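During the no-cost extension, the postdoctoral fellow (Dr. R.K.) reprocessed legacy sequence entries with the updated structure-token encoder. One reprocessed record is reproduced below for audit purposes.
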Amino acid sequence: MQVSQYQDLRVQRTINSIYDAFKRLICEKEYSKITVTELAKMAQINKKTFYRYYPTLDDLLIELQTRYSQAYLKEIGNLQYPRDLAKSVEAFFTYSATQGEAYDRITTCSVGSYVGIRQQMINEVMAKTWGQSQEFNQLADWKQRILLDFVEQTGLKVYTTWVATGKKEPLEAVISAATELMQGGVTVFKIRAVSQFSV
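Re-encoded structure tokens follow.
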């Protein structure tokens, strides 16, 4: 729910309360078990107020994920791919590490309701980053798909492992390991793809 600067501060506080309650519930239970009734109670609003802003919980989840993806895209909007892969990896981990437990739950889940919405965010990010790369777009479609899968799955798996182990390793060490893995794979893949073009 976008609120303009001219709208009542009370409306903004209500929306913030809904967001805060929703994030707390995401941290406490599976998404399928969250109800509008308990969210409204936690946000200290009535159900009608919730429905004034969101037709369903799914709409609220989509908006939350959109906020995450838009904020992340602002961080990486000027990067060029594959040249700036290392900067992109650092931006992903740095951004993700500051978003909180609800973000981590959504980002690291492997089954359930969050997987689909997370994939929509990933697809949007990939289209607005790698999808704009001239070098990437010269690859055959199937090579584009496997390259994106590699980048996506490697970064996500490293982050998921870091979260699952309690974020014990320093963030800089995790970024370095992820960058080394991803850059190594992309560089070798790119060199082979280019050499095939020149044959």
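Confidence is low (pLDDT under 50) at residues 194-199. The two ends are 53 Å apart (CA to CA). The remaining legacy entries will be reprocessed before the final report is submitted.
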